[in-house]
Design goal:
Elements (H helix, E strand, L loop, with lengths): L1 H33 L3 H25 L7 H43 L14 H13 L2 H26 L1 H20 L1 H11 L4 H39 L5 H11 L8 H13 L3 H26 L8 H15 L3 H27 L2 H12 L1
Length: 377
Amino acid sequence: MPGDNRRTARKLRGWYLPFLLIFLAMAYLAFSVSLPLFPPLAWSVLLSFTVYPAFSWMKRRIFPRSRGGNMPAALATGVIVLVIVIPALFGGYVAAREGIKLYESFSGVLEGIGRSGGIDLTDLFPAYIVDMIRTLTERYPFLEDLAKQLGERLGPMVVSVSRAIVGSTLTIAWNLAVIIVVSFFLIRDGSLIIGYLTDIIPLPSGEREAFFRRAKEILQAVVYGVIVTAFVQGILGAAGWWYAGLRSPMFFGAMMMLLAMIPFVGTALLWGPAGIYLLYAGKLGDGIFILLWGAFVVSMADNLIRPLFISGGAKLHLLTVFIGVLGGLAAWGFLGLFMGPLVISLFFFLLESYRTMWKGYLASPSRVSAGSEKNNS
């Protein structure tokens, strides 16, 4: 019998090692092929998850006889294009255009400081601030030279930003095409993909179900809770910015939408300094308005909207969100705002699963009996 076991082990090693080497080589090649498409693939997963409830409803109520789910999947993909992609592109275009105008205006201010000609600074600043700037440049002439140098450097920067936006049009179009095609198949075959992943994940059945349940809860918390809340805060912030008479409300509204995803500080990084600037500029009414609007309307929207989407079991720890958002932003750019918290939260879930299994192993009867026999000997 021991000889038969050894022969079986040798046979297993005979085919197992070559298979493992071939599998690792193909996995590396597949990873190399997929890596350049990681951003659009990740966006496809997020967007497909967002509209999957609509797909399920259409497949169940409107197209119950649809073979393969092609029609409801196509309509759900159309929802992604009409409701998410097109408004996001338009908002990004408007924000980029206003941002470039802001850079150009700031560059012009720097170039015009201290000159008798050039732009009229009173169009941008109160009169006493203009007098203070001119007094400083007259007393310290090097400030004028410094301003000119900054203006000369910011000018090419503005041009390069404009060219980058135009030059990236083809890349954006390519990524959008990948997102649309992949989203269609993820929506249509999502249940099959989840079932396949459930079979191959090396976890006990209970842990596998808990893993996917946790991933779904986190995605719901991030996609619905964080994004919807940030979108509403961005709109409210832009409205207050416009009402207070500040420049580029669309640009700063988009910035508030991004900052709203960062815990603790969020939109206050913009409306706080803006209110202080208005108070310092002598516009007491506008300054008080933007501060009150930011504190009691923009910030309170977070407390009112986010709990509607994030249930008790899916709540993310603030530290997890903070590390996930900032780290994800540094690693993957805008995509990291959503993927960062998801990756960090799933890592801690797997760590907790390992802790539970390890404690169960240590407390298992065979482990305890083996330890007692060793101590007795």
